[in-house]
Amino acid sequence: MTINSKIATAIATGAVLLNALAPAAFATTITVTGNGDSSSNSVNVSNTNTTSVTQTNSSTINNVVNSTADTGGNEANRNTGGNSSVDTGNATSKVNVTNAANSNTADVANCNCNGGSTNVKISGNGVDSTNSVDLNSEKGTTNSLSVNQQNSSSVYNGVTSNATTGDNEANRNTGGSSSVTTGDAKSVVTVSTQANNNAAQVGNPAGGNAGGGLGVVIAGNGDSTDNSVDLNAHNSVMLTQSNSSNINNTVESNAETGNNKANRNTGGNSSVDTGNATSKVNVTNEPNFNAANVDDCGCTTDLLAKIAGNGVDSESSINADLGNSLTVGTSNGSSIYNGLTPRALTGGNDAKRNTGAIVGIDPVTVTTGDALSNTTVHNSGNTNSFGQPFSMPDFGNVNFTADFQSFWAAWMSWFSSHS
């Protein structure tokens, strides 16, 4: 008797963002030139780019499995004449539970930087003119990028697997032989839980994210002019990856061929011969992996500033406040409980109070098979990887609802090669 139970739980909460956020490069050219005496000229420019990517997954998985394979509990008792025997087949219970949930992948091609160039020129304006250019003088942050990936999973696997060929009786028989022969009892339980993976590639590993140059020229303006340029170019990249997992595995695996009886028989042989009892439990938990790479996000590149050839008593100033900030936070929290009760039993057999036809010739025997309990527990998780160049996994045209397992396999293959 064979019972096969297979549960594959694929929570299709994988969020993928590939090459979807690549703000177009732009060029800014500001020219204040050729204005008359005593004119007042001002230019205010605000170039603000804000990109926010949020990927959040939450999953709750409860698997409660009871698998029983039983060929035992047979009786051949109180018979007269001929042989009395119990012969059972094999009992096999196999349970496979696979949980795969919560994966985020983000690929932001350029760090939301100004991919073009900014050129400011104040020249050729008349005497006593006032000329000013403000670029983001109040905004403070010109470009901001925020990537936030979060996963939360709660997984409970409660598995009870029983394979029994024992508890048989051949008692109080008269005449002939009395025997109990059992098949093998085998219980195999496999539980695998993989949850909470984040991968983020921000920027172009090939170095294609460099922002354009900043060029400022104040030149050739008339006497007593007042010329000023204020530049405030800030770039901010914030990447946050966090995982939280709670995994509870409670497994009871029983394989039993014992507790057989061949008692109080008269005449012939009395024997108990059991098969093998094998209990195998494999538990694998792999929660919480973060991988992040931020390439070439120093968005502000060369600054060329020039003040030259302006008239007597002119006042010219260039104020530049340039800054780049990168904040990366990765965190993992996992709670794993494995409560395992594997049992393999071939003992507890009786062959008592038997009377053979000829004492010393007709034997009374008990022969048991092997009892094997093999338990393997593998826990790995809470891994953060930052700053290692990588290319994103090749997911192909994966349908995340119907083919989440393929998506997960591609993810894990990629991660194992980069960890």
Features:
419 residues, mainly beta, 7-stranded parallel beta sheet, 6-stranded parallel beta sheet, 4% helix
Fold and architecture overview:
The protein has about 425 residues and is mainly beta. The chain has one domain. The protein is about 5% helix and about 60% strand. It is built from 1 helix and 21 strands. The strands form 4 sheets. Strands 1, 2, 7, 12, 16, 20 and 21 form a 7-stranded parallel beta sheet that branches. Strands 4, 5, 9, 10, 14 and 18 form a 6-stranded parallel beta sheet that branches. The longest helix is centred in the last third of the chain and has 15 residues.
State the order of secondary-structure elements, H for helix, E for strand: EEEEEEEEEEEEEEEEEEEEEH
Alpha-carbon Rg, integer = 39 Å
Beta-strand percent range: over 45%
From the spread of the alpha carbons, the general shape counts as: rod-shaped
**Count of individual helical segments:** 1
Query: How helix-rich are the residues, as a percent range?
Result: under 10%
| Main beta-sheet annotation | 7 strands, parallel
What is the number of domains? 1
Give the helix/strand class: mainly beta
Which spans have pLDDT < 50 for at least 5 consecutive residues? 18-25
The separation of the N and C termini measures 44 Å
Strand tally is 21
pLDDT averaged over residues = 79
